[in-house]
């Protein structure tokens, strides 16, 4: 019996092509994601103030391009709500051509940021921020479905319940076909067969009937144009990269594999440039659809991502009349299940919260609260990371101490400084010595301390100056090589910084 493929081997395209079972999983996952992308892309187009075709074409070009050039296999990129919110004011004030120009520039900026190694900054995102990001994402996915459940015919509610029941029960019987796909097909067949009048995909907006065409934005190539689009492009680039890299890290954890974040950052840039030249509204990684692809359907390769884009275009252009009749209740049920499956229930259980340091819980709550309040994952991650940094600095600052350890003779006193010395911990250091009562010779032993910044060197200079003003001498000993080098280079050069 052959060994099961490892998580890394599961990402192999050749491996999937050689295995009918794995290929079927990739194909069906791509189909489910394509169906789920359609109403989302239309909704985001409406938010951005553009024709639904702009969002649908963007989802097609983003998915197909990122499948080839991206760094994270099985991750879905398409038109997103975050990008739609960013570009909406530009569309309102200057129109579609300026939007296209902004998307292209955003892609170029992402290429530059990726090349400069911005992806490496992900190492500074704490685990508690990641948990908050995931839980906020789950909440936003659920909240985004509420408009489809308000003011609708009563039949929608039992349909949603039935679809959820199918997705819960079917995997216990078989995993040969993704449960979300079965739920969509069954509800569509029942709705059409019985002639029920319920909201469907066609109600979300008109589907395109032609393929996207190459488009050069009709804008003046002037400094004024650059000044108009640059703020939107930069915001789009940063928000898109942050959401994409966070999503890539989440998929890494789910699949127990590692992805090339720098390649992903540059791939997002290429995808946005391509999308812009085909008249799309731009985008980034779609977290909900990625969870459908990876978690609900079990996809692991670029095949599913590529097919999600191509099937999306094929469905809306070639089978638009059929797709338009898919009830929104089925897609809402799929997204609700994604929301429930994405939420990290373990981290909010009473037992876990009791064991977790309060600072970690604070960071997680801050990330969730800001994200949900602003409807922007980028803001939440930024606030969460800054909160974690402040709490960490505060915690480390309180681990520094000055201890009187020896009196070799009546004219000498030895202090030991212990801890990590930086701006937050060294500020109070100057107040922990007895400048008046100490003898003529003072020794400060730094064997158990480390100097991290110029603020600490300035503080040590201040201590020496205060003792000198009393006619006393100070000798600093025991520095490690790194601290000694920093102290030698900066001491005496920082007058006025203490």
UniProtKB/TrEMBL annotation:
Give the coiled coil ranges: none
Q: Which residues cross the membrane?
A: 27-48, 54-70, 98-122, 129-146, 152-170, 177-199, 219-242, 303-320, 326-346
Q: Where in the cell is it found?
A: Membrane
Record-linked InterPro entries: Membrane-Transporter-like (IPR052706), SLC26A/SulP_dom (IPR011547), STAS_dom (IPR002645), STAS_dom_sf (IPR036513)
Q: Is rRNA-binding among the key words of this record?
A: no
Q: Which keywords appear in this protein's UniProt record, sorted alphabetically?
A: Membrane, Transmembrane, Transmembrane helix
> How does this chain sit within the bilayer?
Multi-pass membrane protein
In this protein, which residues make up the domain named STAS? 410-498
One Pfam short name = Sulfate_transp
Q: Name one GO cellular component term.
A: membrane
Q: Which PANTHER family match?
A: SULFATE TRANSPORTER YBAR-RELATED
Name of the molecule in the record: Sodium-independent anion transporter
| Species the sequence originates in | Mycobacterium dioxanotrophicus
